[in-house]
Automatic annotation (TrEMBL):
Record protein name field: Large ribosomal subunit protein bL32m
Localization, UniProt: Mitochondrion
NCBIfam families: rpmF_bact (TIGR01031)
Source organism of this protein record: Urochloa decumbens
Gene Ontology CC annotations of this record: mitochondrion; ribonucleoprotein complex; ribosome
Major subcellular site: mitochondrion
Record keywords, A-Z: Mitochondrion, Ribonucleoprotein, Ribosomal protein, Transit peptide
Domain of life: Eukaryota
Organism phylogeny: Eukaryota, Viridiplantae, Streptophyta, Embryophyta, Tracheophyta
Pfam families: Ribosomal_L32p
Length: 111
């Protein structure tokens, strides 16, 4: 009960007191916000609009070694060379055996 009395006295002290006889005038409504308000940033020296984009900034410099490890798989790969088989004429990769023909004359087929 003592707490309720203390709270009541604090609320009464915080309430604005006007001399009796004067009507209470409500404060004017706040001004409408403009569409493009600008924010002045001291470091930039110019007004920055509401669409100010903040970017991520790395904390430390990335070494050439780490950058190379990350970008290594992105390097260009050599294009495989396609050659024709000497015996049957079909296309194949170099150093691969062509099982579709035999060595010798392509017109003669034993199988």
């Amino acid at each position: 009960m003592a707490a309720a009395g203390w709270l009541r006295r604090a609320a009464a002290a915080a309430a604005p007191r006007l001399p009796s006889g004067l009507p209470l005038i409500p404060p004017p409504p706040p001004a409408p916000l403009a569409e493009a308000q600008s924010l002045v940033v001291p470091g930039l020296g110019a007004a920055v609009g509401p669409a100010m984009e903040l970017m991520a900034v790395p904390k430390k410099k990335v070494s050439k070694y780490k950058k190379g490890l990350r970008n290594g798989p992105k390097a260009l790969k050599p294009v495989p060379v396609i050659v024709r088989c000497r015996c049957c004429g079909r296309v194949k990769l170099p150093h691969f055996y062509c099982c579709s023909g035999e060595r010798g004359n392509p017109s003669e087929s034993s199988s």
